[in-house]
Automatic annotation (TrEMBL), chain B:
It comes from Sporosarcina ureae. Residues 28-158 form the Tripartite ATP-independent periplasmic transporters DctQ component domain. The chain crosses the membrane at residues 12-33, 45-68, 93-113, 133-155. Keywords: Cell inner membrane, Cell membrane, Membrane, Transmembrane, Transmembrane helix, Transport. Belongs to the TRAP transporter small permease family. This is Tripartite ATP-independent periplasmic transporters DctQ component domain-containing protein. The lineage of its organism: Bacteria, Bacillati, Bacillota, Bacilli, Bacillales. InterPro entries: DctQ, TRAP_DctQ. It is found in: Cell inner membrane.
TrEMBL record, chain C:
The chain crosses the membrane at residues 6-39, 60-80, 100-129, 150-170, 176-197, 226-246, 252-269, 281-303, 323-353, 405-433. This is C4-dicarboxylate ABC transporter permease. InterPro entries: DctM, TRAP_DctM. Keywords: Cell inner membrane, Cell membrane, Membrane, Transmembrane, Transmembrane helix. It comes from Sporosarcina ureae. The keyword Transferase does not apply. The lineage of its organism: Bacteria, Bacillati, Bacillota, Bacilli, Bacillales. It is found in: Cell inner membrane.
Amino acid sequence: SSGDGDENGSGSKGVTLNAVSFLPKDHPLTATLYDWIDSVEDATDGRVKVNWRGGADVIPIGEQFEAMNSGVMDINFTYIGQYQSLAPETLSIALSQLTPSEERENGFYDLMVDRHEEMNVMYLGRWLTGSPRLWLNEPIDSVDDLKNMPIRSAPNYTRFFEKLGIASAMIDPSEVYTSLQTGVVKGFVYGGFNGPRKDGWTDSSKYILDHPFWTQNCTILMNNDKWDEISTEDRDAIVAATAEYEKEMVEYYTELDKEEIEELDKNGVELFKLPKAEEEKFLDLAYDTEWGYLKKEVPELVDELRVLTMKEE
Amino acid sequence: MLLRISNLLDSIINFMAILGRVVIIIISLLIIGDIVSLKFFSYQFPWVLEVSEYLLVFLTFLGVAWLLREDGHIKLDLLLNRLSEKNRMRMEILNSCIGAIISLVITVYGFLATWNLHMRDIKTETILEIPRSLLIVVIPVGFLFVFIQFIRNFLSAINKLKSRREKS
Amino acid sequence: MEWWGVLALVFGSIFILFMIGLPIAFSFLTINIIGVIVLWNGEAGLNQLILNIFSSVSKFSLLPIPMFILMGEIMFRTGLGFKVFEAVGKWFGNLPGRLSIVAVGSGTLFSVLSGSSVASTALLGSLLVPDMQKKGYSPAMTVGPILGSAGLATMIPPTALGILLASLASIPVGHFLFAIVVPGLLLAVIFVLYIIIRCYLQPELAPAYDVEKVSLSEKLIGTVKYILPLGFIVFLLLGVIILGIATPTQSAVLGALGTVVLSYFYGGLSWEKFWDSLTGTLRSSVMIFMIIIGSTTFGQILSYTGVTQGLVQIVGNLEFPPLIILVIIQIVLLILGCFMEPLSIMMMTLPILMPIAGTMGFDPLWFGAIMLLNMQVATITPPFGMDLFAMKAVIPKDSISMKEIYKAVVPFILLNLAIMALIIIFPSLTLWLPSFVK
Ligand code: NA
Ligand code: NA
C-alpha cells in the first residue's frame, strides 16, 4: 500500500515527504504537527503530502538530523540541540525574545534560512513554545542558593549552569524519577510546563523557579535537495502556510501551558519568584553567558543576531 | 605462510577481546569515580554518561569477531541437530556465506560512513563534541574481523566436507 | 504489497535464516540490510543503518546488563554464589523438587537486587544449573523454574523494563512500581505450588536425594556467614539508591564492585578467576548487545513500513467490548513477543496502544502492569526470547539443547498467562497497593 505518491491524479506531479520527529507521534506536545501537515497539504492542493513515519521508534533521536540531511527522511521535527555544533549561530533561535511572526517580519527568519542552507537544510519554521525553568525540590531565596546544588541537566545548559555553580548531573531520562525521589539530584531543568507532572517528576519537585530563560527551540527542517524539487509556487505556499501555522501553534501551546499550570497548582506544585535584583542577576547571567559564547563562535554574526532577536523597548 | 596469517589474525582478534574486557573495567571505574565525586565534592564529570555509552558500543564491537570464533553467538539448533553431519556442513557453508556477505556490506559501508563523517567534520551534539568518525569507526573495524571469521568458518566447513568425501 | 504481505515475507525470511543456523543477530542484520536498501534510498539507507546500529547500544540504561552479569560470573566462579545457595537451601526440608524451589526462592531474593531478567537468568543459570544437573534434575525442573523466577526481576522493583515501559507510556513511574509488586509476588507463589505438585506427581523429574538433617544452629551459622553479608551487596544495590547516593544504573556498578570485594574477603577471588569472570561477562554481554542491535534496527524498519501500526489499528477498529479488545491486544503482543524483544515491541506499539487504552477507559496502571507481564513473557516465548538465549549462553555447553529449553519453559509461560488472566479479572491486584501512595 505504500508508495511514493506519484500516482497523484490529473498529471500534476505530486510528492510525498517522509517525516520523523524527536517526540513520539502521540505525545501531547506534537499535537499541532498534524495541523501543520494538513495545512501544507491544503496549501498545495494535495500536490505535497507528508507521511509522518514516527519518532525515535523509526530513527534514534540523535541520528534524525543526519537521516534528513542524507535524504533517508525528508522532514525532521527537531530542536537545535541536535545540530548546533554544525551551526552555532542557530543558538540565537533559543535566545530570541520575539514571536515567530516578528522573526519573519524583521528578517531573522530569512537569516536563519540562509544559515541552515549552509548545511543543505531548509529551515521551514518553528514549532512548540515555552521557556526552560528550574524545577526544584526546595524553594530558594537567592541565586547563590543554587551553588553546588545537583540538578539534572542537558548539554545545552552546561555553560549557564557552570556560571551559577550548579552541579550539573547528566542522567538518563529513565532514571530521572528515582534520582529526584532519592535526592541524587535536587531538581531539574525543563522547557515549558507539559511533561514533568505526567512523568511523576513533580512527586519530588514541587517548586518551579518562575524566571523563564531563553525559549523553546524546536524547528521544522527539510532536506534542501528535496525542497528544491518542489515547484516555486508550492514552496511559497508551504512557507506561507507555515507562517500561518506558527501563529496558531503559539496560541495552542500558550493555552496548553495555562491548563497545565492549573493542573500543577491542583497537585500542589508552586511557581515562585526571586526578589527583583536576584531575578535580574539570574536572567542576565542566562543571556550573557550564551551571547558571550556566540561572540567566540561566530564573531562576524553576533551583533546582527543580537539586534534581530532583541525585543525593542 | 597461511598458518602465520591465521595466527596473526587470531592474535588481533584476541587482543581486541582483551581490550573489550578492559573496557568493562574502565566503565566501572568511571561510574564509581563519578558517584564519589558528585556525592562528596558536588561535582559530576558531565562527560561520564556519554563516555560510558560510547564504551558500551566499543565493548560490543571489540568482542563481536572473537565471539563468532568461539561460536558464542546465539543460533537456533532445531533443524541443525536433525541433519546428517554432511548436510550440517552444507548449512554451515551456506550460512557463513550469507554472514560473510552481510559483514562485508557493514564493513564497507561502515568505513564509508566513517569517512563521510570525517570529511564533514561532524561532532557529537554533547558536552565533549567528539568527532563522530572516531566513534563510528569501531563498527567497520569490528566487522572487518567478523567478515574474516565468517570466511574462515566457510573454508573450514568446505575442508571438513572434502575430507569426509575422501574418507568415504 | 499489502502490509500483511510484507509481514509474512519478512518473518518468513527471518525464520529461514534462523533455521539454516545463521546466528540470530546476523539474521536480523541480513533482513535489515535488505530493508534499508529497499526503503531508505539504497546507499543513504546503509549509511543510516550504521548510525542506527551505533545508537541502539549506545544507551546508559543497558549498563546494568554487563554489571549484573559480572556479579553473577564472580559469584559463580569464586564459589560464593554456591555457598549462598547452599545456605538458602538449608532452610528448606525434603520437599518435592527441593532444588527447584530453592531456585525460585533465590530468584525472588535476587529480583530485589536485579533490574533485568536477562541478567538474573545469566546469574541463576550459571550458578544453579550445573549443581541441579549433578543431582539428576531434568531440564523441565532446572531451566524452567529459573527462567520463570528470573522474570521476577522485571516484575519486582528495581526493573529496567518496567521503568522503560512507564516512561514510554507516560504512566507515573512511582505508582507503576507499586502496581507491579503484587503480580510479581503472585508469580513466585504459583511457581512454587506448580513445582511441588508436578514433582509430587512425577518424582523422576527431580530425583530426591538425602538431605542432611541440619541443626538450627547450623542453619543460623550458614545464614550469618553467607546470606547476611549479601546485605552488603543489597545495600550497594538498593541502599545507595534509597539514600540518594546513586541512580539505579550506577548502583549496578557498585553492586559489581561489592561482589568483587566480598568474594575477595571470602578467599575465593584470584586474579585468574577475576579475568575469567570478565571473559564470561564479555561473552554474554556481546551476545546480548548484538541481538539488541539486530532487533532494535529491525524494529525501526518495521515501524517505518507501518506494518505494526496496521496490525494494531485493525485491533483498534474492532467493534467488541473493551474486555475482548484487551484480550485481543494481549494476544497480538504475545505473538509479536515470540519474535521480537520487548523494547522494540513497546517502542512500536505503545504510541498506538495507549490511545486505544485511553478510549477503552482502561486504568493506565492496570493496563501497564498487564503489558509489562506480557513483555516479560516475550523474553521467554520461543523461538526468539532474550532470556532463553541468555540461559543457553550460560549453561554448560551442549548439556541442554535449545529445543529442551523451549519445552521446559512452556509450563512457566502458561503460569505467567494464568496470572495475567487473574490480573485482568481482578484489577485491584494491581491497583490496591498504589492506592496507598496516591
Ligand atoms: Na527487580
Ligand atoms: Na519471545
